Amino acid sequence: MKFVDQAIVDIIAGNGGAGAVSFRREPFIPLGGPDGGDGGKGGDVIFEGDENVITLYDIRYQRTIKAENGQKGMGSNMYGRGGESMIVKIPLGTFVFDHETSELIADITKHKQRVVVAHGGIGGRGNAKFKTSVNKAPHYAQEGLPGERKKVRLELKLMADVGIIGFPSVGKSTLISVISNARPKIAEYPFTTLVPNLGMVEGKDFIPFVVADIPGLIEGAHTGAGLGHRFLRHVERSRFLIHLVEINPARKSPVDDIKTINRELELFDPELAKREQIIVLNKIDSYGEEEEKLRDELREFVKDMPYFEISGITRNGVKELMDFVGQKVIEYRNREKEETASKDLLNP
């Protein structure tokens, strides 16, 4: 299935059903009076987070999402049936905006989280509701109210515990295929990965966490160069980052690569540049004496940062890296729980 992370669609909630104009007519009951029932409520359009949905593909190519209208009221004080709501499954990490005003309607972050995006119209009242001591036989009823109509914009930002960033072909896809259940396309040329890949990793103490391989970061990514402008947003939801580098004769040095990518992160969103990073030198199985100087330069540069050297092919150093990453995930989750608990105490 094609990965789609943006969609614009018209949302139409159901109209309320009209109230009925009806009078009770039974033998031996003269002047039975009005008995027109109310119309049914129109169906809502509801977005629901689903952890099994990973793309907006199914929504992207729908022009309109419409809920069912409420039915008309009937005689004998029978109400019309309410319209069936339209429930739309969307990926976790989806922002829902009003396309006309850019107002944020919802941020879907949890499985089964539901948000009513457009409310159905209320059904009209039947003539039984208009009977008074003065007007005992009203010959009118209300029309149902129309359902809400909106044009909404959906933007997906993948939710992962850890994001893997770096230049094309540094081995991000290989690493995620080694440590998780993800099976991305892998080849030795730039932009093999055209969509973000998510993988589930069993971490320290058997606690699973999600890792995302973010493609397309090169110099100028924040302006749209390469694939970066399209996919930089997916880094924003990661708790921390694995910054994968290599020693490549085609570029100056891994230190320059780190500075270049971090500059792109800062230009896209200054908060991203503050995100904690684990620096990882990949492909150590292929380096010799010629690369030792650049290797030493990298070690000196990252002396105050978490640093690992691995080979995604031979898996040398991968276990040590992932043990450290798993412990970090636990620390971040515990910290977030404490912060949430503190907020709850302050705002009971």
CATH hierarchy, class of the largest domain:
Alpha Beta
Q: What is the global morphology?
A: elongated
Radius of gyration: 29 Å
| Main sheet characteristics | 6 strands, mixed
Measured by DSSP, the beta-strand proportion falls in 15-25%
Q: What key phrases describe this protein's structure?
A:
2 domains, 5-stranded mixed β-sheet, Spo0b-associated Gtp-binding Protein, Chain: A, 7 helices, alpha/beta, 6-stranded mixed β-sheet, 21% helix, 348 residues, elongated
Can you describe this structure?
The protein is of the alpha/beta class and 348 residues long. The protein folds into two domains: 1-156, Spo0b-associated Gtp-binding Protein, Chain: A (Distorted Sandwich); 162-346, Rossmann fold. 21% of the residues lie in helices and 21% in strands. The protein has seven helices and 14 strands. The chain has helices at 57-60, 172-179, 228-231, 254-268, 270-273, 292-301, 318-346, and strands at 6-12, 45-49, 64-66, 86-90, 94-98, 104-108, 114-118, 149-156, 162-165, 197-202, 208-213, 240-245, 277-281, 307-309. The strands form three sheets. A six-stranded mixed sheet has the order 10-11-9-12-13-14, sandwiched between helices. A five-stranded mixed sheet has the order 3-1-8-5-6. Strand 5 (94-98) and strand 6 form a beta hairpin. The protein is elongated. The chain starts with 5 loop residues before the first strand and ends with a helix.
